[in-house]
Design a protein that fits this description.
eight-stranded antiparallel β-sheet, Big_4, 6 domains, Ig-like_fold, alpha+beta, Jelly Rolls, Ig-like domain-containing protein, Galactose-bd-like_sf, 11 helices
C-alpha cells in the first residue's frame, strides 16, 4: 500500500507513480499486478528479501521510497476474492446489511471489532448459514482460505465448515479437496484448503452447520494466475457511436500450462463524445480472475473506411516446459496504412503448431493467415517455451510397501484417549509384540509396552498414523492385550475391544471406513494366551486397497459394571505399490507405414469427394498416432481404416483412369499401358472380395495405376492447313477461256478443277494434299494452245511471245490494249507468285517455279 502526495504544481501536470524492483535473491523476480498504481499487489517467484521502490513524478520533480519485504514464492495463484461481491444468508442485525463485504476487504481482524468483520448472531432463519462470493464470470479456482473470528461469547469459534461451488447449471456442489486436505478450524490463523481439481465457477460459498453462529474476518479465493491477458484493438470511423466499438464481454487469458480461458471483462465507460473527432485513447478493463486486467486501444480516424489492407502484427505467447498442449490466440492485430491497429480473426498453420516441442525450452514460430484477407503479410506468432521457475527437482517418493507402520511420520490419538503413563507415541509401531516374555499372571504392569487408555476408554477412540506421503494400503492388524486371563466385568482393567475398524482420510478431507474383503477378526492376548494361536496374537482385516496419507485405528471398547480401558501393543499397516504401471509402448510401425503411404498419394488423381472422405480417415489415424495413450486396438483399427480407405480410392481412380483412356487425347501405346494397369487394379478389387488382397498388393496396384496415368502421352497437335491459295487457283481456273485450250487440255483442266475442289472441301485434308492439288490445277490451267492469233491471248501469252520464242531475242513491250492485258496478267501472276511463295515457305515443300 503506497501513498503519494503532490503540491499541485505544475497545475496541468499529472502525478505518475511506478513500482520497481531494486534487488532480491538470486533469480528472484517481483511481479506487480499494476506497477503504475500507488497501491498494488506483488508476487514473487522465489522466497527471500526484496527491496521494492515506489517512484512518483509530476514532470518537474521526482521522489521515491524504498521498502524491504520478505517475499514468499507464489504457487501460481492469486487471491481474486476482492474482485467478487460478497453476500450472506444472514447478517447480524446490529451490523450494516452489506457487512459481508468486509470479508473481501483484505483486512484480517481477530479482535472484538464486529463492524469490521461479518457474523450471523441472531440468525433464526433455520437454514444452513452461508457466506458467498460471486464474480462477473467464471474464474479457475485452486484453493480457498477462511479466517474465523470469535468474541468468546455470543459469537463462538466455528466448529466445522465446507465449501460449495455453483456448477454450469447453477446447482451447488461440494468442492472435492486435494489428497490429504481437510477442513480445519483454527483461531487466529487462516484455514486453507486446496482443491483436487481446478474449480471453474462464478460462485463459491462457505457453508456452516444448521443453527451455527459464526464469524469470519476474511474469505480468500485463489485462482490460477494467467501469464498475460490479451489486449483489444479497435479502429473505427470518426463519428461512430460508443456502441459501435463492440468491445468484447470476455478476453482471452494465457496460462503457463498452455491453456487459454475466456474471462469476463468489465470496461470503463466510453462516450460518443470521445469518438466525435479524430482521437486515440485507451480503455481499461477489469477482468474476473486476472488482477492485472486488460486494456482496449481505441483509434477513431476519419480515413478508416479507406483502410482495407494492412499488415498483421507479430504476437507472442509464453508456456511452461512440459505443458500438455497449447491454445493459440484467435485474433491478431492488423496495422493499417494510417498506422492504427484493428483485431482480425486468424487461422494458424497446423504444421507449425505440431512442430512446437513443449518438452524443450526454446522459441517456436507459427505462421497464420488473417481470415478476411485484410493482411498482405502472413501472421506470425512466437511461442516461448520456458522452464518452470517453480518446478521441483525433488524426485517422487518411492512407494511404501510391506508392513509400513514403522514409516509413519507421526502418531496421534483422539483427545483424552490415553493414560499419561501409557502413551501411544513410540509404542504402536516400535516392533515390540506380544510374546512369551509378557506376564503370565493377572494385573501386571505392561505400561511400557502398550498404548493404554485405562479408565479413559470411550467409544470411537482412535490412534492415527500420518505417513507424509500418499500410501496405498490393503491390510491392517493389531495386537490387543487384556491384563486378566479371564474377563471379569466386576474387576474392570484392560480388555480387548468389542470391535475395531480402520478408517482412511479421503480426498475430500473426510474420514471413511475401508471396505473389508474379509471379516474383522479379534484375538484376545492375556496372561493365559500370549500370541500362541495360529494368528500369532494378531487381530486382522483385509480390505479393498485405498490411497491415503493418514489412517486410523478406531476402537469400540469393552463395557461392563466396572471401568474398562483398552490396550494395543502393536498396530500394523500393510502397503502395496499403488503406482500405475507404465503402459507398454504400443507398436505404431504399421500405422506409420500406412500413414506415409496415404500421405504420399497424389490427391489430384482422385475425385474430390472420395479424397475428402479419405482425408478424414488420414486425420483420424494421425490423431491416434500422435496420442501417447492410444491402445493397440485403436492403432490396429486405424491401420484397417487406412487400408480400406485406400482400396476405395483405387476403385475410384480406376474409373477416372478409364475415362482418360477413352478420351482419345493420348497415343495408342500409352493408352495400352494404362489399360493394362486398369485391368490389374480391377483384379485387386475382385481379389479383395474374397479376402485375397494384402496392403502391399493394393499399394502396388495403386502405384502402377498412377504411374500409367502420369506416363500418358498426348497425340501431336493437329496442324493448321492453309487453303487460301488453292481457293484462288480454283476460282482462276473456273474463269478460263475454253477456246484457248485444246479439247484434251480443256478436259484435263476440268478434271483438275473437280479434284482440287474435292480437296478444298475435305475437312481432314493435309497440307501436302492441298499443295499437290494446287500444283496440278495450276499446271492444267497454263496448258494452253501453243499458237494464238494476235489480240486473243491466254493469260501470260502474247503474239510477240511466239516471235520471241522463235527469235530468242530481246522483247519490246507492246503498246495499247495489248499492253494493258499483259500488265493485268503480270499483276495476277505476281500476286499468285507471292501467295505461293508464302505458302511454300510455311509448308517447306513444293516448287517455286510459278513465281519466276
Amino acid at each position: 500500500v503506497g501513498t503519494v502526495k503532490d503540491d499541485g504544481l505544475p497545475a496541468e501536470g499529472d502525478v505518475a507513480t511506478t513500482w520497481s524492483q531494486v534487488s532480491g535473491p538470486e533469480g528472484g523476480t517481483a511481479k506487480f499486478v499494476d506497477a503504475s498504481a500507488a497501491s498494488t499487489t506483488v508476487t514473487f517467484n522465489k522466497e527471500g528479501d526484496y527491496v521494492l521502490k515506489l517512484t512518483a513524478s509530476d514532470g518537474e520533480k521526482e521522489g521515491s521510497k524504498e521498502i524491504t519485504v520478505h517475499g514468499i514464492s507464489s504457487d501460481g495463484t492469486v487471491n481474486v476474492a476482492p474482485q467478487s461481491s460478497a453476500s450472506a444468508s444472514y447478517t447480524n442485525g446490529y451490523q450494516p446489511k452489506d457487512n459481508a463485504k468486509k470479508v473481501i476487504d483484505g483486512q484480517v481482524v481477530y479482535t472484538n471489532t464486529p463492524n469490521e468483520t461479518w457474523n450471523n448472531w441472531g440468525d433464526n432463519t433455520g437454514v444452513e448459514p452461508w457466506l458467498q462470493l460471486k464474480w462477473a464470470g467464471k474464474v479457475p479456482l485452486k484453493k480457498a482460505k477462511v479466517f474465523f473470528w470469535a468474541d468468546g461469547g455470543g459469537v463462538p469459534m466455528a466448529s466445522s465448515w465446507k465449501l460449495q461451488y455453483a456448477d454450469a447449471d447453477g446447482d451447488w456442489q461440494d468442492v472435492k479437496l486435494a489428497d490429504g486436505q481437510s477442513y480445519m478450524v483454527n483461531q487466529n490463523e487462516g484455514n486453507e484448503v486446496k482443491f483436487a481439481d481446478t474449480v471453474e465457477t462464478d460462485e463459491l460459498r462457505v457453508v456452516f452447520p444448521k443453527g451455527a453462529i459464526v464469524g469470519a474476518s476474511e474469505f480468500e479465493a485463489y485462482a490460477i494466475e494467467p501469464v498475460s491477458v490479451d489486449e483489444v484493438n479497435r479502429l473505427v470511423q470518426t463519428g461512430s457511436k460508443a456502441d459501435d466499438l463492440k468491445l468484447p464481454s470476455t478476453v482471452s487469458a494465457v496460462y503457463t500450462d498452455g491453456s487459454r480461458r475466456d474471462l469476463a471483462v468489465t470496461w470503463d465507460k466510453v462516450t460518443d463524445a470521445q469518438l466525435a473527432a479524430d482521437a486515440v485513447f485507451d480503455v481499461k478493463g477489469t477482468v474476473a480472475g486476472a488482477l492485472s486486467g486488460t486494456v482496449a486501444h481505441i483509434a477513431a480516424r476519419s480515413d478508416t473506411a479507406s483502410q482495407t489492407v494492412g499488415n498483421a502484427q507479430p504476437v507472442e505467447q509464453t508456456v511452461y516446459q512440459n505443458a500438455k498442449s497449447i491454445d493459440l490466440p484467435a485474433t491478431v492485430p492488423v496495422k493499417f496504412p494510417n498506422g492504427y491497429n484493428d483485431d482480425r480473426k486468424v487461422t494458424w498453420k497446423d504444421a507449425d503448431i505440431k512442430a512446437i516441442d513443449l518438452t524443450k525450452v526454446g522459441d517456436y514460430e507459427v505462421a497464420g493467415t488473417v481470415d478476411d484477407g485484410s493482411s498482405s503479410a502472413a501472421a506470425k506468432l512466437t511461442v516461448h517455451v520456458v522452464a518452470d521457475p517453480n518446478g521441483s527437482s525433488t524426485p517422487k517418493p518411492e512407494p511404501l510397501v510391506g508392513w509400513i507402520e514403522g514409516k509413519a511420520t507421526k502418531t496421534t490419538i483422539s483427545p483424552d484417549s490415553e493414560a499419561t503413563w501409557s502413551p501411544a507415541e513410540g509404542k504402536l509401531n516400535d516392533g515390540v509384540v506380544v510374546d512369551d516374555t509378557w506376564p503370565t499372571t493377572d494385573d501386571q504392569n505392561v505400561n511400557d509396552k502398550v498404548w493404554g487408555s485405562w479408565g479413559k476408554a470411550k467409544n470411537g477412540m482412535y490412534a492415527q498414523y500420518d505417513f507424509g506421503q500418499s500410501v496405498t494400503v490393503d491390510q491392517s492388524r493389531a495386537q490387543f492385550w487384556a491384563n486378566f486371563a479371564e474377563t471379569d466385568d466386576s474387576k474392570g482393567g484392560l480388555e480387548v475391544p468389542d470391535a475395531w475398524e480402520i478408517q482412511y482420510l479421503a480426498e475430500d478431507g473426510s474420514w471413511k471406513d475401508v471396505e473389508p474383503t474379509e471379516d474383522y477378526t479379534i484375538v484376545r492376548n492375556s496372561p493365559a494366551s500370549r500370541a500362541d494361536t495360529d494368528a500369532k496374537g494378531w487381530s486382522a482385516v483385509t480390505f479393498k486397497p485405498v490411497a491415503t496419507k493418514s489412517l486410523r485405528l478406531v476402537l469400540t471398547p469393552h463395557t461392563g459394571s466396572s471401568t474398562f480401558g483398552a490396550a494395543v501393543a502393536e498396530w500394523g499397516v500393510h502397503g502395496i505399490d499403488g503406482t500405475e504401471p507404465e503402459p507398454t509402448p504400443v507398436d505404431k510401425t504399421a500405422l506409420k507405414s500406412a500413414l506415409d503411404t496415404a500421405n504420399g498419394l497424389d490427391a489430384s488423381r482422385y475425385t474430390a469427394a472420395s479424397w475428402a472422405e479419405f482425408q478424414q480417415i488420414i486425420d483420424a489415424a494421425q490423431a491416434v498416432y500422435d496420442d501417447a495413450n492410444a491402445t493397440e486396438e485403436q492403432v490396429a483399427e486405424q491401420v484397417t481404416k487406412l487400408e480400406d480407405g485406400q482400396k476405395a480410392l483405387v476403385a475410384l481412380a480406376t474409373d477416372a483412369a478409364k475415362a482418360e483412356a477413352a478420351s482419345g487425347k493420348y497415343t495408342d501405346k500409352s493408352v495400352e499401358a494404362l489399360n493394362k494397369a486398369i485391368e490389374a487394379a480391377e483384379g485387386v478389387l475382385k481379389g479383395d472380395e474374397v479376402g485375397e488382397v494384402t496392403q502391399a498388393t493394393v499399394q502396388e496396384a495403386s502405384a502402377s495405376l498412377n504411374k500409367a496415368v502420369k506416363a500418358l502421352e498426348e497425340k501431336p497437335a493437329a496442324e493448321t492447313v492453309k487453303k487460301e491459295s488453292l481457293k484462288a487457283s480454283i476460282e482462276q481456273a473456273k474463269k478460263a477461256d475454253k477456246s484457248k485450250y485444246t479439247e484434251e487440255a480443256w478436259q484435263a483442266l476440268q478434271s483438275q478443277i473437280a479434284a482440287a475442289q474435292k480437296v478444298y472441301d475435305d475437312k481432314d485434308a493435309k497440307q501436302v494434299d492441298v499443295d499437290a492439288a494446287q500444283d496440278a490445277l495450276d499446271k492444267a490451267f497454263w496448258a494452253t494452245k501453243p499458237e494464238q492469233k494476235p489480240g486473243s491471248q491466254q493469260p501470260g501469252v502474247t503474239d510477240t511471245d511466239k516471235d520471241d520464242k522463235d527469235n530468242k531475242g530481246d522483247r519490246v513491250p507492246p503498246t495499247g490494249s495489248a499492253v494493258s492485258v499483259v500488265a493485268a496478267a503480270a499483276v495476277l501472276l505476281t500476286a499468285a507468285g507471292v501467295t505461293i511463295l508464302k505458302h511454300r515457305q510455311s509448308g517447306d515443300h513444293g516448287s517455286a517455279r510459278h513465281s519466276a
